[in-house]
Amino acid sequence: MLPLDDPKWEELRGGYRLPYNPSSVLKKLESNVEIAAAWEELWTELHHQGDVGKASYAAVPHLVRIQRERGGLGWNLYALVSAIEVERRRKGNPPLPEWLTDSYFQSWRELVEIGIVDLKQTDDPLTIRSILGALALAKGAVKLGVLISYLDESEIDELLEERLEWSRLYR
User: Fold this and answer.
1) For residue 73, how many other CB atoms are within 10 A of its CB?
2) pTM score, two decimals?
3) Where are the domains of the chain?
4) Is pLDDT above 60 for 15?
5) Which residues neighbour 98 within 8 Å (Cβ) at sequence distance 6 or greater?
């Protein structure tokens, strides 16, 4: 894991393909300071219209670590790391750097354990969906993870109406 005070952060690029150092924002999450603004910045800078960068990848182990150490990151954690993982596979996004590979994939293994615990503790539909999407990605069910992570409630309703006659059978 790249230490938050490592100068290498200054060389990394985010979702806009511009240099972006998320370390100060990650420290805010870690300290439980300005949480809403921190998430807004991370969503904006680490993921932009399908584009991610090496700063996006380097942030994932820290986000998982913060959740493990203090909890409370909620749906944003699972949704953002899922978006980064899905887009990591997209042509045109940079490959995962070799120096980050071990900590990146280790954080995904840890996310499974953390997600199971968090799933037991929430009743929030968005958080449940975000956790389930991340768990599917972590376990290699990429298409299912994409489906769960990227569809919103209206799209899920439409899918159920069209494919499963949901309203007639289950309501």
Assistant:
1) 22
2) 0.90
3) 7-170
4) yes
5) none
